[in-house]
Amino acid sequence: MSVYGRGLRGLRVPEGRLEIGNTATSARLILSVLAGQPFAAELGGNALLSARPMDWVVQPLMDMGASIEYLGVKGCLPLRVQGVSPLSPIDMEATVFSAQEKSALLFAGLYAEGITRYRQSCQSRDHTERLMQYFGIDIQADGDVTSLRGGSFFSAKDVIVPGDLSSAAFLLAAYAIRGTGHKGSLSIKRVGVNPTRMGFFHLLREMGLHLMLQKEEDLLSGEPIADIYCPQAARLSPVLAEGNERIQSLIDEVPLLAAVSAFAEGDSVIRNCRELRDKDTNRIQTTAGVLRAFGIETSCSEDDMVIHGGKRPSPAIVDSSGDHRIAMTAAVLASSMDEPSIIRNCGCIDVSYPGFVEDLSQLAHIDILRSE
């Protein structure tokens, strides 16, 4: 892919509303870029995205000088942004644990005159900081505080995007829950192994899976990559996953961790995952619902899940509710059984992992059923 940039001040007024589909990260980052433009624009998304909160990004942008008007439900898309150039820099304390808030503020900070500072509550994903440093942007991280000086010049560079660890996690999970009688090893090549994303990897190790990193190297952009290798399946032990920083390092993999925990002998507990209530679905509830459909005893609250492992799942018919990670988690669970299961509403998988079915087919037989 080649992108021909127009510089910070070179964007033009869009011809119509910018429709983001169901990509929340894109919506929040584009919203921040629009806030620093000397024109107005509208931003919208599909039904799932339009139900997700945007206010924790909108409010700091308004504090920096942008005018933002909700065109439907308050706090959600669609909305209209009247940008301002330049924005005013701010010092901000985190209001959520998600790295999206941090990244959104840093993008807006590019259009501010002066230093914009963000203090995070715990270490979250740092891909934005690494990429900005690579491009030569004046950005510094000191403990929990990230500072960016706006208006500085930076130039185009080539970027190699590592393999997505969140996508690799589904294959790791499908391999982990195979019976120990299955032969064969698993190797996934050139995966991004950023330390702020490795929570699921480390927890699988704690559960007994013999995971190793091979051919480790750092890309020019500062992102570490490696081959993930597992020589054989193993019996799994229950796990306790808690603490805001640890949960942030595997927030997208929490449904998957719950599914894997069903194959451990004993109770596994996942805490501090309240953020999952505001994803494509309330992923605490939808994850618990999928597990129960497969016969796995599960209890949950607004902030945690308990998975009672040790009982093999049973075939099921489940609906993803349009949530790509729930659909893939259900497919991974289904891959552990010889009898067929049906997962409905799976077109959403293409949002994040278009090759998922083909890749999972290396571990299980999958048929795509087309509705008439």
Sequence-ordered SSE layout with sheet pairings:
Elements: E1 18-19, H1 24-35, E2 40-44, H2 55-63, E3 67-70, E4 79-82, E5 91-93, H3 99-109, E6 115-119, H4 127-134, E7 139-142, E8 145-149, H5 165-176, E9 186-192, H6 199-206, E10 212-218, E11 224-230, E12 240-241, H7 244-248, H8 254-261, E13 267-270, H9 283-293, E14 297-300, E15 305-308, E16 317-319, H10 324-334, E17 342-344, H11 356-360
Parallel strand pairs: 1-2, 5-6, 12-13, 16-17
Antiparallel strand pairs: 2-4, 3-4, 6-8, 7-8, 9-11, 10-11, 13-15, 14-15
Can you characterise this structure?
Its EC number is 2.5.1.19. InterPro entries: Enolpyruvate_Tfrase_dom, Enolpyruvate_Tfrase_sf, EPSP_synthase, RNA3'P_cycl/enolpyr_Trfase_a/b. Residues 12-360 form the Enolpyruvate transferase domain. By secondary structure, this protein is α/β, with parallel strands linked by helices. The chain folds into 2 domains: 18-149, Enolpyruvate transferase domain (UDP-n-acetylglucosamine1-carboxyvinyl-transferase, Chain); 165-360, Enolpyruvate transferase domain (UDP-n-acetylglucosamine1-carboxyvinyl-transferase, Chain, Alpha-beta prism). Helices cover 27% and strands 20% of the residues. The protein is built from 11 helices and 17 strands. The protein has a 4-stranded mixed sheet, covered by helices on one side. A 4-stranded mixed sheet has the order 5-6-8-7, with helices on one face. Strand 14 and strand 15 (305-308) form a beta hairpin. The chain starts with 17 loop residues before the first strand and ends in a 12-residue tail after the last helix. The model has no long low-confidence stretch (mean pLDDT 95).
